[in-house]
């Protein structure tokens, strides 16, 4: 039996690749190979070989012959047209001749219903500005001829042309309009087109399409609400409000926007329309109110936040709502203007001290408030109401961060009465104030630390700092009393400095001298003490 692999038609794919793919083959032979290929299309490998060599063919005559041949193929006989269309797309992208490119576009147009990639390809081309006039006409004709646009194609057109010139943006909108429905997935693609910087006609075209819809999904609120807040065109806001009313059911963001538009929009007609729409909404549930409270943390529009606070004020008795309000405030307190701040703190004031979570959140917010008056107001709400036993750490943190002396005094007065033996974290705070020459709290800190000098290692060095460098009698006396307590290691150099300090009272100097006499002194220290006492008036200090 004859070996089938030796039949001419089975050797033809190899010849096609060898002859047509070589730049050295004669033109006559290439034409003969193409003729042979047309007579053996029943062999699948023949078409495959032709598609493989098409992008590799450099001479125009052979490429044109191949293109005419492949373009004339009846694609209905192909089980899979993917390779054919991919080859034609590759040739188009490499082709420089405008006429050939246009011919390819019309050939691809004929089969656009067979491969979804082709529609996306034409959409991508629609956003290119370097097409010839004939190519652009071919692209527009193709897109206009599409009976139905899938959502993927519509989104591709919108995303491709978002920064394109107005004429191309309009073309993208026209493509999107052929999509049977604008679902939630279209929101991301449509939103940039409603930006006020875009052409008014494009914005209105989208808004009117939305307003004419019978039912819109809640996701469209993300597209419409920015128009109501930022668009200076009254008609644009009117169309957006019409579209917003088509959304069912209304979510918390929509309810809040209706409240804001009814009280803050600059146009009386829109305010009236928004007010009328509110009447269509049944009484809000606790769940909706809690969700609205959550918007306070994410909404960045001042008027909207104030409207939201006014709506939530009557329901602050609901713990979830007031905690969400407090959380939103503590998360970014600096964004609230004075009017919003006053409204918010007035709402939270009754619960300061009673609701531990609210109290903690208010304390947390103080450190990020830029205004001294605002920090002072929040402190006034909390002082005397909160339990320092439970909230000492945030109060201490506030004290260390605060620079305003009046507020520091308010905070210091809260912590000074606490026992350092029960609250060791206060020791470092009091030591830092004691050794700060400009602190107004030094005497108080000295009295507190002196009574615990033997308990904490950081206290004696702080006391020594005062004894070495300060002259204020009461301050030195208190620190010396603490330094002389049993259990505290005394240093000769510190005590002798007190003895030599003529600006302090003699009683303190005598105590320091008595303590020195109890120490084991070396010769140098004995000489130093003798020199210090030699210059004193008789009877000033006693050595026995």
Instruction: List low-confidence stretches.
Output: 1-6
Percent of residues in helices comes to 55-70%
Distance between the first and last residues' Cα: 137 Å
The largest sheet, given as strand count, sense and whether it forms a barrel, is:
none
Tell me the Rg in angstroms: 43 Å
Overall mean pLDDT: 81
Roughly what fraction of the amino acids lie in strands? under 5%
Alpha-beta classification: mainly alpha
Count of extended strands: 0
Global shape: elongated
Secondary-structure blueprint:
Elements (H helix, E strand, L loop, with lengths): L7 H13 L6 H12 L5 H10 L6 H12 L10 H13 L3 H13 L5 H11 L6 H13 L5 H10 L5 H12 L9 H4 L9 H13 L8 H10 L3 H12 L6 H13 L3 H11 L7 H10 L6 H11 L6 H13 L6 H11 L7 H11 L5 H11 L5 H14 L3 H11 L9 H10 L7 H9 L8 H11 L3 H11 L8 H9 L5 H12 L5 H12 L10
Describe this structure in words.
The protein has 544 residues and is mainly α. 64% of the residues lie in helices and 0% in strands. The chain contains 31 helices and no strands. Helix 21 packs antiparallel against helix 22 and helix 29 runs antiparallel to helix 30. The radius of gyration is 43 Å and the shape is elongated.
